[in-house]
Structure formats: C-alpha cells, structure tokens
C-alpha cells in the first residue's frame, strides 16, 4: 500500500471512530477531531490519492492562480475550473443587483430539492457566463477579496509596504537555505472582512536539508473528503515547483490540521473509499526549460502514471 493513501485512510477511520459530532457554519454538521499531522515522502511518488480519482488539472490551475496573485475566478473559469464558483456566486446572489429566484442556503437546498437544484444550476450558469464575458460584473462579483493569491504575492504590511512572500522564500532559499524564516502567512486579522472565505490553509514553511526541500502546511479547518486530497497535492506541487527553481530535490510534505472534519453528508462516500485498495502513486514532470515558477502554465506540468479508482462525488458545503 502506498503511504499517501494509507495515512489519509487511517485519518478517515480515526475521525469516524473517535470524532465528535459538531455543528458548523454551513449548517451541514460534521464529525470532527482537533489536531492531526500527516507526513508524505515526496521521493516515493506524487501524493495524489489513488483510492478515488482526484482531478489534478483543477489542483494545478488553482495553484497557478494563487501564484499569479490573482483573486478573480475568471482565470479559473477560463481553465474550466469551478472549485471556487460557489463563493463568488454567493456574493452575487446576496447582493441588491441579483434579481433571480431566492438562492438562500443554496448549498443545502440544492441537495434536498430537485426542482430548486435546477434553478440553482441555471443561475450558476448565468453567473459563470457573466464573469467570463462582462468585465464590470467580473470585477465586482468574480473577485473573492484578499484571498490566497493576494496574501501570498502582495501582502500589505502595517508600514504600508507590499511584500511578495513567495518571491522572498525563493530568494532566501537560494542565499540562505538554512534560514528558519522560509514562511508564508495568509492569515491577516485586518483582512478577514474583505475575504469571501478566510484562509483555511493559513501558513506554510519550507526546510532545506541535504539538498532536499521539505514543506509543512497548516490548516485551521479542513474538509477531509473533498478538501484535504486537494490540499495535499497542491502543496506537493508547490514544493516541486520551488525545488525546481532552487535546484533542489523534493523531501517531505507535512500536513498539520486543527479542526479536521468529515461533513455528515460525506460519511457514506468515505466508507466507500475505505473499501478500495490503494494503487501505485504517479510521478510529476515539470518543464525543465523554465527557470521561474511564475512562468509555468498547465502545459508545463505533466502527471505520469496516474491510474486511480473512479471518482466519488459529494456536495460542497458553502
């Protein structure tokens, strides 16, 4: 059994057996534990789960979106990536400009009411088309506020200066690989009101040892079924990209989660995944001609040998 699937599935079992039922912001309900760590040896393969198909191109395009410093979902929609749609959609339907049918609590109602789900899908399609084709609309309702891309690439300090945290990390690794300050922070108390979703993965730190780059990322809140597989693969890819630019091999990826939970409407999906036998991990191949991670596009990132079990669908709690 590959270690990536093993430690993930062990976490799922632990939550189901020892977690506490809790209410949450979305009204869905969770089974939750507090405080957990997972470790992945990136030399053993790229940690994209094989017990269900995880859409790698969505992960890669989202990470490139972060690295561009972008906060508008238009780039994602242009790359057929819809994982952030609900957050911008919510911003629109809660505004005075929205004139369509009532979309209150659309995340839960769309799961429970087939007729409402049809209306929701129609309005969501309208939203997507407007973001893609209407610049003014995209500026107002496609932008999610000062989320990850803004914080990573354009952190605004109390001194009024703007800091590019990713560029700092790369420069510091090159000049001082033993630094204990290879850290990026996405959590800013003064920005929370301007963010459609406050950062879940709020900080990460790199560590260089014997020519290998390791990364630890921290999460305040984590949807284990839908979110965590994305987060693991995203930070693994980020580690590969930065190691590539800095002339290093990849080392270890470490996940540290606080409120680690399974949503109540994901339990059956988790049980299905637990019955599956893990397969060999894929490998990642980067365009060796590129020297800066900021020049990478989707075509420059190749996933090799990914043969997972089929996907398992589950609703997103918004």
UniProtKB/TrEMBL annotation:
SUPFAM superfamilies xref list: Thymidylate synthase/dCMP hydroxymethylase
Domain Thymidylate synthase/dCMP hydroxymethylase intervals: 7-318
Pathway assigned in UniProt: Pyrimidine metabolism; dTTP biosynthesis
Subcellular location: Cytoplasm
Record: residues binding (6R)-5,10-methylene-5,6,7,8-tetrahydrofolate: 223, 317
Lineage, opening ranks: Bacteria, Bacillati, Bacillota, Bacilli, Bacillales
Binding residue positions for dUMP: 25, 180-181, 220-223, 231, 261-263
Protein name (Swiss-Prot/TrEMBL): Thymidylate synthase
Role this protein plays: Catalyzes the reductive methylation of 2'-deoxyuridine-5'-monophosphate (dUMP) to 2'-deoxythymidine-5'-monophosphate (dTMP) while utilizing 5,10-methylenetetrahydrofolate (mTHF) as the methyl donor and reductant in the reaction, yielding dihydrofolate (DHF) as a by-product. This enzymatic reaction provides an intracellular de novo source of dTMP, an essential precursor for DNA biosynthesis.
Species assigned in the record: Halalkalibacter akibai (strain ATCC 43226 / DSM 21942 / CIP 109018 / JCM 9157 / 1139)
Keyword Cell division: no
A Pfam family hit: Thymidylat_synt
Presence of keyword Transferase: yes
Gene Ontology CC: cytosol
Keywords: Cytoplasm, Methyltransferase, Nucleotide biosynthesis, Transferase
Gene Ontology MF term list: thymidylate synthase activity
